[in-house]
Amino acid sequence: xxxxxxxxxxxxxxxxxxxxxxxxxxxxxxxxxxxxxxxxxxxxxxxxxxxxxxxxxxxxxxxxxxxxxxxxxxxxxxxxxxxxxxxxxxxxxxxxxxxxxxxxxxxxxxxxxxxxxxxxxxxxxxxxxxxxxxxxx
Length: 137
Fold this sequence. Notes:
InterPro entries: Histidine_triad_HIT, HIT-like, HIT-like_sf. This protein is α+β, with helices and mostly antiparallel strands. Helix content is 31%, strand content 18%. It has one domain: HIT family, subunit A (2-Layer Sandwich), CATH 3.30.428. It has helices at 4-9, 54-75, 118-132; strands at residues 17-20, 24-28, 38-42, 79-83, 94-99. A hairpin with a 3-residue loop joins strand 1 (17-20) and strand 2 (24-28).
């Protein structure tokens, strides 16, 4: 059975994409630490980040770094947080999010999906796409 991320990547489930190429997709988390929280995901479904093919892992991190720079620019955060957990979805992914302190590193403290503001989510995606110069994916 496909992971929820594979379903998103394949267009079976909706998402707010900010980046996409043939190896990597990046889209907003539906349960963000803060608005602008992005998941950077390999297109190929691989459960553990330690099992991602090395060239894809390098590219995944290049994209995460590019997204992190855009997050700092767009949201004015002190840093872009970077976190690998992998227990929520069995598909390797990197969390990249606006961070001003260590508080954002607790994935138990996210905004529940049913409590996010759709306008803020759309605005975050639009601003990140513009900063990443990716247009309307």
